[in-house]
Fold:
Amino acid sequence: MKSKRSIKLFWIMFLICSICSVIYMTLAYSKFLFHSDCAGYLFLAKEQMKQGKMFPNRFHYTTEIFGISPNLLMIPFLTFLDNEYLIHEMGTICYTLLIIIAIFVLFYKEKKMAVLLSILYLMPISSTYVDMLFYQGAYDYCILFMLLSLIAVRYLHKNFGSQCKKTWILGLAFYAVILFLADLTSLRNFLLFLIPLMLAYATVIFLKEGGNPCGWLKEKKLLTLLGFTIICTGVCYLHYRYLCAKVGFDGVMTSNGFIEPSILFKQSGETIGDILKLFGIHKTESMISISSIYSCIMLLYFVLTSVILPVAIIRTLKKIENRLYRFCVIYILWSNALTFFMMIFFGLSSGRYFITIYFGNLLIEVPYLFWICKEKSKVFWKWPILLPLFGALIVHGAYYVNASARYGKVGMKDLVNPTVHDSVIEVLKENNIKYGYATFWYAYATMIAGNSEVDIAAYDQGDPMMPYFFDVNKKENIQYYAISEDAYDVEKHKGPCFILVAEGEKIPEVYYQKAEEVIKVNTNEILLYGKNIHLYPELVEQSHE
Structure:
């Protein structure tokens, strides 16, 4: 009995340490890495709270519609906190905890599996991974809805043999709600969740009955789920298009087409390189160094989780007796295949897109590791489970060593009141300037650093009067970055304003001529004006040339 309690305590302590580690690193270090991309969720949360609407009026989106994302969990903190770094951090922390809860709901009968999966998910394998999941929180919803879709599928599979219509209706209703919620966020979800679900059901039927159409008709419940998924996917897509039209979203993600075949190998190489960076593998100065050893360990981890274990699971696919696990494997494989296909052939080479593939692999690998420990205990003992646990401790430690070396010690006061010294904000406050313009990567990061006491609108490089837009869009179809149109409304900002010109940036000379004062702040220049730059005819004329 004591032995079982000790083992249970061992698992609990590992999980608690991992959760506390991620919470601490988010509170301690995310403010140093906060960039303008991070601000979109907070801007949306503020508009949702202000207007009391899920999709606020006059709000512009970016590459996707932020429906069920960390922004919703930031809203409660807006009611009693005024530190915008902390509000953003609390939203992403709560979303991370929500994902942990979803993992335990999915593995409610296999708690040790849930603990191991949670620990591996929380492992800070690289700065990109930490940023996308714990700091910025951009891919949190992908992880959550992958889990929710499998929770819905598990409920349906659990009642597969049930003759009770009420049970099935409730299961299908829950399933439909999950698919609908996934639709509220991004077109990417159709590739990640909805289409793979359809393909998974079709594959399961084919594996059971082969190419015989008469045999397919015998699988009535699987066909029902396949048909229901197809109908839900169609309805969700139509609703998504309606939603895009309603909020004025142009869906820039669909602008990516097939890449030029002649650069396919180059694209493949760049994709693999970015994926390796996601796993913390970087160029090192010496073959024999701690950095090189760490990169070798992470390379081995990448090969195991992304190549060896998935191949081993595929080879045993026909032998898998657990119907739910078999479906889960097929579903994840389809999702991963479609995502990787998009990365290679549509030019989406950034390593961050591999995050969903990595988590999907973990979902099917954790049960497989427990199976190895059970069936091959004489060969492997408990090492397939113990090595990831202790490896997670090493990765957490390595992250803290690098973070503390780069940012120094962080005190408790900085956790509850995070601030980053910003000379630009100080100068603007001294001159009582409340509004201005800066290029995208400076605008919103600087604005949040000042707790939005100064409103800063992002402008397109080289033209302060042209709102920031994505290069794939035409100028007459501007896609502002995740912010209210009010930020660009001249009627609401007629008073004094400024233009921030960062090092290496250039704007026309006429802007300097019309400025009342030019202040040098470190390597940046702040041009001060007595009124909004749109109220100067000479500047307007310059912008329209």
